[in-house]
Amino acid sequence: MAKKSVASLQTGSKRLTKAIKMVKSPKTGAYTFVESVMAPEFVDEFLKKN
Question: Which residue in 10, 39, 36, 7 sits closest to 23, CA to CA?
Fold first, then answer.
């Protein structure tokens, strides 16, 4: 189960997006947050990965 949060960042001429997803560890069952800053067109791929 993943929860997503997406924020748009503007730096100079580049438009970037910071995506945060919550991932459940199969080993311990605890949730961790994974963050990444990327171009907006790659957000869906990032959120679909396990």
Answer: 36
Q: Which amino acid is at 20?
A: I
Q: Is 43 helix (H, G, I), strand (E, B) or coil?
A: helix
For residue 17, give both structure tokens. Answer: 């997006």
Q: Dihedrals φ, ψ of 47, to 5°?
A: -75, -25
Indicate whether 4 pLDDT > 90: no
Q: Which residues have a Cβ under 8 Å from the Cβ of 14 and sit 6 or more positions away?
A: 39
Amino acid occupying residue 13: S
**Rounded to two decimals, what is the model's pTM?**
0.61
- Tokens describing residue 30: 């605890």
Residue 25's DSSP bridge partners are none
